[in-house]
Automatic annotation (TrEMBL):
Cleaved signal peptide residues: 1-21
Top-level division of the source organism's lineage: Bacteria
Record field: compositional bias (Acidic residues): 138-147
Entry protein name: Uncharacterized protein
Keywords assigned by UniProt, alphabetized: Signal
UniProt organism field: Sphingopyxis macrogoltabida
Region of interest (Disordered), residue spans: 133-153
């Protein structure tokens, strides 16, 4: 009987650990990599061989290549030190791209969006997570400096 209760306890503990692992937030502990402004124009939608790009990661990689290597900056583009390195720019291909709003997704697919790009890294697998939000061209507000106590009309 003692063996059976130990086995049941061990099984229950294993199931609880597996459930907890499944419920773990994959974004917990994301590490900051970079942030920049990007305006996606026609030069960012065509690769170096002249082929049209439609994949969001490929478009973002071409944008960084154009800014950091070719010196093509459109209004709203800002350079970043991280993707100036070719090997680091190649990481964009395997990144998890996240659209923070519907407008960013729609305009990246078919428009000329001005984006605020935040790049983070997952601690468990090292994969980049790239958050895209539409931008008005101004630097983002520091969330800690925004006064949420003032009621809006």
């Amino acid at each position: 009987m003692k063996f059976l209760s130990c086995t049941l306890f061990a099984s229950a503990a294993l199931m609880a650990a597996q459930a907890q692992a499944q419920d773990a937030d994959p974004d917990e502990g994301l590490g900051y990599v970079a942030e920049y402004g990007a305006t996606i124009g026609e030069p960012d939608r065509i690769d170096s061989d002249g082929a049209a790009l439609t994949d969001p990661a490929a478009i973002l990689a071409q944008d960084r290549f154009n800014v950091d290597v070719r010196g093509i900056l459109q209004p709203g583009d800002s350079p970043d030190e991280y993707f100036a390195d070719e090997a680091q720019r190649e990481e964009i291909a395997g990144a998890d791209i996240r659209f923070q709003d519907d407008r960013a997704a729609a305009e990246l697919a078919d428009g000329t969006p001005s984006l605020f790009v935040t790049v983070m890294r997952r601690p468990d697998d090292g994969r980049l997570v790239i958050f895209l939000a539409t931008s008005d061209g101004e630097p983002a507000d520091d969330p800690d400096s925004v006064d949420d106590s003032t009621p809006t009309a």
